[in-house]
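Lay summary. Proteins are chains of building blocks that fold into shapes, and those shapes determine what they do. In this project we predict the shape from the chain. Here is one chain we studied, written as its sequence of building blocks.
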Amino acid sequence: MEVYLNQKRVKLNPKSAIGKGGEADIYDIGNGKVLKLFKPANHPDYELLPQEQQAATARLALHQQKLRVFPQNLPTRVIKPETLATDKQGTNILGYTMPFLQNTVTLLKYSDRNYRSTNGISQQFVTNLFRDLHNTVLQVHQANVTIGDFNDLNLLVSQNQVNLIDADSFQFGQFPCQVFTARFVDPILCDRNANQPILINTHNPNSDWYAFTVMLMQSLLYVDPYGGVYKPKSQSAMIPHSARSLQRITIFHPDVRYPKPAIPYKVLSDDLLHHFHNCFEKDWRGDFPKPLLESMRWTRCNQCGIEHLRTSCPICTPTIAIAVVERSLGTATCKVVQIFQTEGVILQAVLQNNSLYYLYYDRSEFKREDNTVLLSGELDANIQFQILGKSTIVTKQRKAITLAQGQPLNAIAADLIRVNSFSRYWIGNGQLLRDGKLGNEYIGDILEGQTQFWIGETFGFGFYRAGSLSVAFTFDAKRAGICDRVQLPAIRGELIDANCVFSDRICWFFTATQDQGKIIHRVSVLQDTGELVATLVAPKGDITWLDHFHGCSAIANWLFVPTDEGIARVEVQNGQIMITKTFPETEPYVDSGCSLIVASQGIYVIHSQKILQLQLS
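And here is the predicted shape, written in a compact code that computers can read:
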């Protein structure tokens, strides 16, 4: 496709692609600008999807008029279209340029408890972000504009401010916003008799404030208004998870099991809880009360460490250290040993050569399992850590430094680095490399800036997506060469998160995407040869064990998954991925927010402040 800006042709290279959504691809065009290029009906992402093809045609037709009259009186936090991208004749609009926001994260990350705790992000900081966002929403409405598809993926946080992107979908004048995100659409505007949110009325300022309130709740409690598991006493009252907002079945409902990793809502003030009740259960609408935000002053309990908006800690109980405990359920027994506990936060834990290694942060110091202090300072979201035996790899701004006692610092330039028990693996200058006996060893070529990969003990897996290009590959942990003929089902929509978990000969590749307004979770099981064994796909909330895929651990053909009901074992049977065994005796020691490490000596359970070892019999 030929694209022109101010009658000058722009060359688009897959290497300059920096983002991919359901409706458009984003390219870095230099000079602090990016190009948002709408996908035409013949885009490979829409292959064999006639409804998506029709929607793409209609979207481009609408933008021919809408973008030419886009309002310019919007607040500075809104990233507005600047120069229109056209065909050679300048008649057909294909996209537009906008400022390139770098070093940002989506607001979605602020509802991830692990991200918040490992980066030291307080409730007061998040509250200040929502004060900033509140001002932006007010100013947008004052300009007679409605955001419409207001969601946590089109909000980018940079330092202490929130920027609003995807402004081309805003609603103004004769141009309604016809798209929505299921998690944030106002149920008042939807068909109440449907099994999932279907927008049948037009967005309005009140629906923007509804979405704002959803985002605030999930950022403060790590659960959205319709989270948890609904288990009514009568089977006839059961409804799909996707229909709960339509029936106003919230976390406050007596038949909803509140998720264990979420913060108890009694940490909130009575006024804020009352507002959440009114909004989500009684359909109160209007501007979010600014005094509620302005009055929030969070206090951290000196005893249990939780932040709250009360005069005294509402949930505080003395922490009882677990030495050795045995719990029996029927004939099953679970022996529990506490391995480690800290008042700080555990950042990494790995099993290498059958030994447990971990890194934690406490009182401004980064420490290893033997209490060796590696660094001093504050937690920083721009710093990543990897553990390689007794060594620790610290990465910041594409520079990876290996810290090892008694050895000089070892630094390499790396876009992304992973490790197993015996080597580092990294991406540099469009190549996948690893440590060798005589220096760096070449594994294969990849797409620079667009590739993600993971490594196990025997093989690795990776993929890249850019524009119309999508490639998945496997590689041997010790030999050169990439097998890029892996036939994965197409990843559609905007990629939110991904992870890969390995045993010796298979890997479990997880993705979370947002497609057509829904978050979709998927896992594909692959052999080390790249052969696809099985795939499971479900909307968020439908298969609860699939919702939290960063805490899983694989061994042989099994995947062990932490859930709020205890550990579950997943495997492939007759081409289907399913739970084949549960361990309810582990329920008191596990939740869906922890991580598991399966070892010969038992299963390690990694929480944010403690490590337990479970031995099942």
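What the prediction tells us: The radius of gyration is 25 Å.
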